[in-house]
Amino acid sequence: MSNKETTEINADLLKERRNCSFDVEELTNVIDGGKVQTDKRREIENLFLNSGLSYDDVPEEYLSPKDRYENAVRKSAILSKIAMDMLEKVTVLEEFGIQSPVLRRIADAFFREVSPFLLHLGMFVPTIIGQCTVEQKAYWLPRALRMEIIGTYAQTELGHGTFIRGLETTATYDENTEEFVLHSPTLSSYKWWAGGMGKTVNHSIVVAQLYTKGECHGPHTFIVQIRDLDSHMPLKGLKVGDIGPRLGFQTADNGFLGFDNYRIPRENLMMKNAEVLKDGTYVKIARHGKLTYGTMVFVRVMLVSEMAFNLAKAVTIAVRYSAVRRQSQPKPNEPEPQVLEYLTQQHKLFISISTAHAFQLTSAWLWTTFTAVLADMRDGNTDTLPELHALSSCLKAICTSDCSAFIEQCRFACGGHGYMISSNLPSLYGFTTATRTYEGDYTVLLLQTARFLVKMWEQVEQGNAVTPTLEYLTRHQNKEIWDESPEGIIRAFESVSAGKVKGCVASLRKHMKDGLDYEDAWQLTTVQLVAAAEAHCRAILSRVYWTETVRVSAGSSSEVRAVLHQLAALYLLYWATERTGDLLRFTTISESDLVNLQERYEELLRKIRPNAVGLVDAFDLRDETLRSTLGSYDGRVYERLMEEALKSPLNQEPVNQSFHKYIKPLMNKL
Amino acid sequence: MSNKETTEINADLLKERRNCSFDVEELTNVIDGGKVQTDKRREIENLFLNSGLSYDDVPEEYLSPKDRYENAVRKSAILSKIAMDMLEKVTVLEEFGIQSPVLRRIADAFFREVSPFLLHLGMFVPTIIGQCTVEQKAYWLPRALRMEIIGTYAQTELGHGTFIRGLETTATYDENTEEFVLHSPTLSSYKWWAGGMGKTVNHSIVVAQLYTKGECHGPHTFIVQIRDLDSHMPLKGLKVGDIGPRLGFQTADNGFLGFDNYRIPRENLMMKNAEVLKDGTYVKIARHGKLTYGTMVFVRVMLVSEMAFNLAKAVTIAVRYSAVRRQSQPKPNEPEPQVLEYLTQQHKLFISISTAHAFQLTSAWLWTTFTAVLADMRDGNTDTLPELHALSSCLKAICTSDCSAFIEQCRFACGGHGYMISSNLPSLYGFTTATRTYEGDYTVLLLQTARFLVKMWEQVEQGNAVTPTLEYLTRHQNKEIWDESPEGIIRAFESVSAGKVKGCVASLRKHMKDGLDYEDAWQLTTVQLVAAAEAHCRAILSRVYWTETVRVSAGSSSEVRAVLHQLAALYLLYWATERTGDLLRFTTISESDLVNLQERYEELLRKIRPNAVGLVDAFDLRDETLRSTLGSYDGRVYERLMEEALKSPLNQEPVNQSFHKYIKPLMNKL
């Protein structure tokens, strides 16, 4: 059932929808990339969700972690079965890609957290595709896609995450038996975190230090069977189990894995990029590095898009709730206003609508850039790779971090009710905040971008050409003349970034002049380098968001174009007012310009206000996917809060046994 | 067993402790307020914790919410029994106050979240003390203290939190039976959130609109019996139950309560401030308002102190982990450094050590201010009350908000392992972030402070005297001359606050000149008003922290005095570098001053580095209270992570039943 078929709709929401200045369906089509895409997406959503199989009688948050896991496995099996049946009819994988947003919408309807099978499709299958030889792929891929084997990806260890070269697990080749011997020499070398490893999978990709003929060749990937396919018993020589509860991903079944001289066939080394011959000879294939790199960038593109989706969910919940919720009485004898009327509430929420659009457009743009780089690489040109790496690193860091922060802001904007699990905001935050750490920690990634920035600065100093996204460094040697147009604000952000990079270079040189070597000077400058990389990323986001908005809205009605431009302008003004110190340092902006900037920002909030509900409706998120008492399309907020509460097992009996066992004896001093 | 008796200590932590420049015990005494207080605290901690009764065989996070609740009741009964036994020996309540930090340390050892009895001592008893007549108190208080009755406090409704005047629950006096009739006219009028209401309590304070003779007298407090004392069955005319899972407070048993013309005796109105006579005559006692106000300020003082405690816990965990964790290899052939060596890590963590001290000293100072105001009020002077209100409002808002944000920063600094529930950082955040909302929402409280700031600004304009904490408004009519000393930085923050208040007043007047009335102009200025109140609060925190540091460290050894001054200086420099835009707008600070500020900040991080472990050790938090695999005194991080994981019920059997039920059929296409 689509949201709109619900009969009883909150009167305030009805009014909001009546007053919306643009056609919501048109905007939905723009977001989806066209009417055809919207229709196709809805068709698939109907297929998976109209059956009601995604629904739990007892919501999963009332279960113990163990029961919750078992329920998640049950539903993963249902979901997998529908997906495989469907695959025989339509080739969704081709049309939408494995990690398509439509699958995410469906998965979120099935699980408040995630499926224990998440890494099977998310990492196991892509790694097979990316790192196996043709023969290996022919063996493993069909089995994995038909789910005859279920796998995960085990890289991180208890003692090492960021520093891959420091991994301790060893894979030593034994030419006598033509096997690799996997071993965990220490407790800290145990694999830790792999989703599904705890109790679910029977195979795993394992990253280990490869040794042949006494020589270490660094980390390589292997396919390892973990459990017996028939009995599911862990195989001899392995220690495997669940790592215990986490802040989020509570049904992801994250696990640990330790090896006691565990043997696997030579063929289980994934040999697309490096081979070990029967006699133990190590053969490196030339393109190694570049293509594994490709998978990493691909994952980051997807993450940025996922952040857009998570934020769209959070702000849909918060905006609808803010239209229903009424509170306080600023003027006597007038009714309590919708909290959406308060400027402070608009300030908390509307930036998240803008940011969801910004991330979605940036993800698409990054994808285009990425495919161009891939094409270059196929032609043997790897010049554009470092730029793409620097770009994807900082975008991953900033988009995951901003998304988490804005989801929390949406939650704060919902007051006490945002603290209820049934609002779905806490789970959304718990899930999203993990992305700040995995696939590259925030600080580490920004410092990688900073390395590139400093290098490019030195190129500019030497009068050399630099890559397109950093071409702005050549234009900003002095204070930028302030100009309040969108293009002017973007140029100001670029000049802030350039100014900060310049400051970092000065700091590095000062420390080196004091006698430090480059690496020590670098360490002492890292706080400023992180800030410079952040500034660079904000400049990129601003320019891409604005440019892409102008581009994608060109064919729209004037009403839709107007709101898309308002949202992009809001983004620029929001970050300008957030970064007054930077603007004062690196542009000629004056005190009266700042006052003017603040006024324009506040005016824009008020302009967007009447369309706020329409703007979040346009994300077209079904109630099943939102899973929120506060955010459903019909706005039955208080009714749903109570309905969900009444499902609590604690409410199924008038008196809990703990009264007789503990409270009564205490009251009566027995 | 105190932490220090553990035998096996991580080598890096041993080295850190050997290299600490000051006597940790001396600093602990300073934090506790003297050696006598430290000894007394430890004595009580030993009494409650040495028995091992706080310990769970199966950690509570592995249970279902229902089992977890029952386990929390079991342990609450144990804790209450020890407490009541102890009360007969020592008069802890007198010596430490009901909400004393020592009790918090003990409660945290018993519960990862909180006790379902939390609001009995935290709100039910204090409200009886604060709002009952002498006769009422004589009846209720002994019963409550002996736990013959167990109560909570029900004010917030589904539809109203912030706006108390909007509460919908009615209490209508019936002079025929001399009873009040409590009624919930709508779903949104159901009480919602009261801790312990779900299944635990048998009494509750209830706030309802009082009606006598057809006239409404606004919200008043009543004592209401909820459940039968013998059978624990909810009484007829009530609908009561659990509200379902929350982000934190998971064992707090928060509940809802609805009334269907439920009758209570006339005597159950809490009559210290207002009385209803038998014939229904309403008699207001003059001092009404002022004293209930007192309870509110008291709760805020306690909250600021609690934030200091929560942050001390988080940073103890993160600093110890950062001393044990080694990662990356900035220089080839050198060992991986402790992550505490990284400047970015120091930047993330040390501000939290400073802030824990800042909040503790500010809470104590606020308490002193508060008792002075109380003394004034007893003399009939209420002039100082508005200042205290403005002060406690913004301090509550900023301290809870900063504390939550810094706890998350501590968690981020622990990477993936910080995401484990066993680190205790997620629960600490979940608990703390609630304080941003309850007892006064962040934005609402800052706007209350802003009202006072604007009023005081107008007083200054008219040449009138203003209250001491706002006396600085008279000094900052123009840009402050920048001076990099501590006093200079504090003055700069004051000038920032003054400048922002001035800007708000200008904005208000501009809107009014455009034809708006005051309230509409106020609404349109609220984003800037919130920022002004925040700036005021940061100025207060900076001055109080610095002044109190100088005061309390005066009698210390030079080593302890040095580190306390370093921490306070770090606080000033941190916020100065965070607020460069404000400093550039409202002081004469130059670009080279800013560069210099950043350098001094980074130098200070490096100076504090060798003492970081000693500084968190000085908070003297027992492992039982920290409950963290990452933060224990002995630093056995990886061992504890694995030990906790192995307790998972999922790890008690090699194959989970869901394999046979769901996974195998899927693999075999059955």
From TrEMBL, chains A, B:
Q: Residue ranges of the Acyl-CoA oxidase C-alpha1 domain? A: 293-454
Q: Does the keyword Lipid metabolism apply?
A: yes
Its transmembrane ranges are: none
Cofactors needed by this protein, per the record, are: FAD
Q: Tell me which stretches of the chain form a coiled coil.
A: none
Stretches assigned to the Acyl-coenzyme A oxidase N-terminal domain: 23-150
UniProt xrefs under SUPFAM superfamilies: Acyl-CoA dehydrogenase C-terminal domain-like, Acyl-CoA dehydrogenase NM domain-like
Q: Which PANTHER family did the record assign?
A: ELECTRON TRANSPORT OXIDOREDUCTASE, PEROXISOMAL ACYL-COENZYME A OXIDASE 1
Q: Does the keyword Ribonucleoprotein apply?
A: no
* Similarity field: Belongs to the acyl-CoA oxidase family.
Compartments (UniProt record): Peroxisome
Source organism (scientific name): Chilo suppressalis (Asiatic rice borer moth)
Q: From the UniProt record, give the pathway where this protein acts.
A: Lipid metabolism; peroxisomal fatty acid beta-oxidation
Q: What is this protein called?
A: Acyl-coenzyme A oxidase
